What we know:
Elements: H1 3-18, H2 20-29, H3 35-69, H4 71-95, H5 114-123, H6 127-151, H7 153-182, H8 185-195, H9 198-210, H10 216-245, H11 248-269
Helix pairs in contact: 1-6, 1-7, 1-9, 2-7, 2-8, 3-4, 3-7, 3-10, 3-11, 4-10, 5-7, 6-7, 6-9, 6-10, 7-8, 10-11
Amino acid sequence: MDFQTIIIAFGLTLLAGLSTGIGGALALFTKRTNTKLLSVALGFSAGVMIYVSFVEILPEATKCFSEELGEDAACWASYIAFFVGIFLAAVIDKLLPSFENPHEIHKIEEIEDKKLAKQYRKLFKMGILTAVVIAIHNFPEGIATFFSALKDLKLGIAVAFAIAIHNIPEGIAVSIPIYFATGSRKKAFAYSFLSGLAEPVGALIGYFILSSVFNGIAFGVVFASVAGIMVFISLDQLLPTAKKYGEHHLSMYGLIAGMAFMGLSLLLFN
């Protein structure tokens, strides 16, 4: 694995993570949530993730496994690792308090809600603890982006783009309670921006853990579990959130557009 590839993969992961700052800026410097646009964008992100997981990443995992284990065992290994990834994402999501879960839907208009302001002041007293919760939640997303880019730059760009879209409402969710807790727009934006650093940190931790054992089995485990993580994120978080932000059909149109875009990209640039 050459150093330039690692740097590019890390850079994509960093950019995807820090897109939470876009959500933070929207929450603090605009008056209303463009719910229709967010609904389509989140559906699009889910479409990209689901399509690329099943069409590109999971088959690649099976290919990596087959180099070490043989074809039959490789299919079983991919199957198991895929659902391990889903289980990992589900456990992390389940352990989060619902109020602090960055994927719970929030709107910019909440800043004007005085009742919510009192609630946030009461519940959001330990910003560091909440930052840790968010970081744990975002670790798998960083690993997904980083290792996708290590495998294929075009694939990494697509995944990073999807993760970046998905992080925008997360930035809104982070910045609103911090604004009420501190009374500072600058601090709220900074926290929402920096919360995305959990993703490149997760990528680095994943890389250093696996760097000494980079072989077909290690890459197979990572790719299959990444596919599972991305499918879970799409079905459990992106699509439900897209439906809450807008109309059901808008999220579905975005989903289909995301799949079509990803499929066409793979056909044209592979």
